[in-house]
Amino acid sequence: MSDQDGAGPAERGRFQRTDELTERALVVDARAIARGDILPLAAGRTTFPRYIDRAAGAHLWDVDGNRYVDFLLGYGPVILGHADPGIAAAANAELERGVCFAPLWSPRQVELAELLVDTIPGAERVLLLKTGSDATTAAVRLARIHTGRSVVVRSGYNGWHDWSVEQRAGVPDGVRRETIEFESSDLESLRSILADRGSEVACIVMMPCEDDVTSAEHLQLVRDLAHSVGALLVFDEMRSGFRLSSGGAQQFFAVRADLATFSKAMANGYTISAVTGSAEVFDGLGSTKVSSSFHVNPGDMAAAIGTITRLRDTDALERIWGMGRMFLDGLEQIVGELGIPAEVVGYPPMPFMRFLPSDSAADLSARFHRGVVERGVLLHPDHQWFISAAHTPFDIEEALSVCRASLARL
User: Fold this and answer.
1) Residues 380, 400, 15, 61: is their CA dihedral positive or negative?
2) Which residues are CB-neighbours of 397 under 8 A, at least 6 positions away?
3) Could you tell me the pTM of the whole model?
4) In what order do the strands lie in the sheet with 125-129?
5) What pLDDT does residue 45 have?
6) Which CATH number fits domain 85-313: 3.40.640.10, 1.10.3490.10, 2.40.50.100, 3.20.20.140?
7) What is the strand order of the sheet 59-62 is part of?
8) Would you tell me the crossing angle of helices 216-228 and 187-197 to the nearest 10 degrees?
9) What is the spatial distance between Cα 3 and Cα 60, in angstroms, rounded to a whole number?
10) CB atoms < 10 A from the CB of 356, how many?
11) Where are the domains of the chain?
């Protein structure tokens, strides 16, 4: 790593600017005050970046000049690479013509909706919104209107709105009673829930895949169970959408949901989301209100058009899968050689490693992730990692070398 690339591993630990900003944030920034640290790795001192100065391709530079290979990618949105020139140019060209036209529309809205209908299986209509939580909440409302029922059965992370938030402080008991959670891998628990309250269930909302690999047969069984009680199946494709394939999990597994929600990789980091699905279900949209001044920003829509088109029409996804497979295979080999009590899981575009359950698992995880971040690789201890089209074999080799060094010190 050259000097112009930022501080190398031997120089890491220089976080003067980060610490200054953190001190200021802990007075006025509610999120910083509530969370303390971004990741639970600090062990009493700054060991990872909090504030980023710039990003390009597969790399980030923090405000202290430290460079990192990024496998967080904003929790998944940055699928082509940070600051992709083509996507930035498309978005900026629209932004120069104006940003917010509400309640009027942009031609990009029609173009993006048509592109999604052409790309996503089962997409007869499209509702464009801003965030993943927006989209999945809108899908739940559409399901409730369509079925005339109120209960939602859900699995995975489905956003921060009241019906789905995992931390229940501030959520009225009446809202909590309308949502039932299940583990996506435990179909017996789902059968039990539907046997007990199936006539009340409007929809089953689930991530098609989480950390572990799943199967088309499993998803088809969930679909069949939903339909057996007259409920809809909603795929929350925030992570799988445009990553497993250009058409998302529905294309990858050949299992169709009644509604599917997308955001994250849809626009390479620009802020936009979508609900797609059957025209029959969308007929209920006219009886409710889903509106915001910011739902159809032309810059975000241009970024989405450019991102989806490139993922569909080029080898970008093939390269993402290739780099992800290289990372998965290499990490699995290292874990085996060193005898580490961990398992490497997930699909190549979204790899992950978790330590096997034990009294020391949390400590091992914290030490490993602290070690890789100190050596210039960003991996999350509690969330899938992500591969972008900008990652190169050199980036993967660097990450594997860092992982080996960190694991060897456990």
Assistant:
1) negative
2) none
3) 0.92
4) 125-129, 273-277, 259-262, 232-236, 201-206, 151-155, 179-181
5) 53
6) 3.40.640.10
7) 52-56, 59-62, 67-70, 377-378
8) 10
9) 15
10) 11
11) 3-70+316-408, 85-313
CA–CA gap between residue 207 and residue 384 (Å, rounded):
13
Compute the mean pLDDT over every residue in the chain, rounded to the nearest whole number: 93
C-alpha distances (whole Å) from 102 to each of 98, 109, 151, 193, 285 are 11, 12, 33, 42, 18
Run of H or E residues at 261? strand 259-262
Q: Tell whether the model's pLDDT for residue 11 goes beyond 50.
A: no
Round to whole Å and give the CA distance between 208 and 237.
Answer: 7
The region that residue 122 occupies, defined by phi over 0 for left and psi between -120 and 50 for alpha, beta otherwise, is: left
Contact 182, 215 (CB under 8 A): no
What homologous superfamily is domain 3-70+316-408 in, according to CATH? Aspartate Aminotransferase, domain 1 (3.90.1150.10)
Q: Which two tokens stand for residue 87?
A: 């996507």
Supply the DSSP string of 49-87, one letter for each residue. Answer: -SSEEEEEBTEEEETTSBEEEES-GGGTT-SS-BT-HHH
DSSP lists the bridge partners of residue 234 as 205, 259
Question: Do 42 and 405 meet the contact criterion of CB atoms below 8 Å apart?
Answer: no
- Radius of gyration (C-alpha) of the chain in whole angstroms: 22
pLDDT tens track for 212-224: 889 999 999 999 9
Does the pLDDT value for residue 38 go beyond 90? no
pLDDT tens digits, one per residue of 103-151: 899 999 999 999 999 999 999 999 999 999 999 999 999 999 999 999 9
**Distance, CA of 57 to CA of 269 (rounded, Å):** 12
What end-to-end distance do the CA atoms of the chain give, in Å? 25
**Res. 2: pLDDT tops 60:** no
- Extract the runs of DSSP E, i.e. beta strands, from 314-388: 342-345, 352-355, 377-378
108: left (phi > 0), else alpha (psi -120 to 50), else beta? alpha
Residue pair 275/140 in contact (Cβ under 8 Å)? The answer is no
Q: What is the 3-state secondary structure (H, E, C) of 269-325?
A: CCCCEEEEECHHHHHHHHHCCCCCCCCCCHHHHHHHHHHHHHHHHCCHHHHHHHHHH
